[in-house]
Amino acid sequence: MPFLPRRIPPNRLRPPGAANRFLLIVLAVGSLSYAAPLAQAAPPSGLVVMPHTSSQSGLSYFKLTARPGSAAQVGTVELRNPTAKPMRVVIAPVDGGTLGTLGSSYAPPGSRPHGSALWLRLGRRTATLMPRSSLVLPVAVLVPSGAKPGDYLSGVSVEALDQRSQTVKRGSASIASASRYVIGAEVSVPGPRHALIRFTGATLRREPAGLTFVLKARNSGNAILQGVHGQVRVTRRGHTVVSQTIEPGTFVAHTAIAYPVNAFREAPSQGARYKISAWMRYPGGIARLNTAVTFGHRAAVAQQQYGGPPAESGGTAWWKIAGIVAAILYGLFTTALLLRRRSRGSRKPILP
Known about the structure:
- By secondary structure, the chain is mainly beta.
- It has 4 helices and 19 strands.
- The strands form 5 sheets. Strands 2, 4, 5, 7, 9 and 12 form a 6-stranded mixed sheet that branches.
C-alpha cells in the first residue's frame, strides 16, 4: 500500500490557481520501494524518522486489523537528532485523504483530526531531542465499539520546529517549504467490503496557466481501492478539446477528489459550452460521467485578469431593469384608465 512517511512542505506561497503539479510537493504519495531512503535520510531539518511496525517487518507504514472496541499496539516511531543542537519536535495524528490526481495524502500540520485519526494514541505530542540523541515513541490504536467494517487511513505527522524555510522559485511562483514526515496508519475493521466510486459533477476554472476542467468524484464505499484508472474527453461543437488518461492510483475510502484536466491552449469566449465524458474503472465496478459545463462570466473575468480578451458585461444593470419594469407598469395603468373612460361613455343616457 502506498502510504509512506514523506517529507512535506506545509507552507507554500503561490498565486491562486497555480498548476496542479505543485500539489505533489505538498502531499505524501509514493511506493514502498522508496520507503527506506525517505525514512533514514536526514532532511534539511536534521531530523531522522524511522517507523517500526508490530505487524509486518519491512513495512514503512502501520497496518493492522482490529475489531470494534479493541486496542492494539501498532508499533513505534524512532526519532533521531544527529545535529549538535537541541531539537524540538511535534507529533500529531492527521487525517488520511486522496490526492486530486489519485494517491494517498494527509492533512496539513495543525489541522483538526477526524475519523480514524482520533483512534491513534501517541506516546507524546511534543519532544525535545538533545544533540546526537534518539527517542522511541509508542503508537497504539483504540477502535471505538461502534466502528463499522471497512478500511481506514490516518497518519502520524512528525515535524521539527524552528526550521529554516527553504524558498524555491518556479517561474512567477515562490515556494517556501519545511520538512515534515507522515507515517501512514491503515486500520482494517473486519466485515464485508463494498466498492463504490461515483462522479458527482464537473466544473471549469480559469487559472493563470490557462483553462482547467475539474471532475468531481467520491469513493462512497468502505474499501481503499488501488489501481483506479480511466479516461476523460472534453469536446466543443463536436471537436475534441482534450483527451486524457486517468493514470492508475489509490482512492481512499470515504474521501472525494477534484481531478484536474488542463486545456491551457483553450481561450474561450464567454458562454462557450463544453461536453465532458469520462469513466473511472476500479476493482468491482466502473463510474461514468456525461455532462456539460459553460464558460461563464466569472471565468471570463479571470481570463481577462490573466491577460485574455475582455469579458462581456455581467448582465443588465439594475437601473435598466427598473426602467423597463416602470415603463411596463405605466403602459398597463394608461390602458386601464382609457378602458374605464370608454366604459363610462358607453353607459351615458341619450337625450331625445
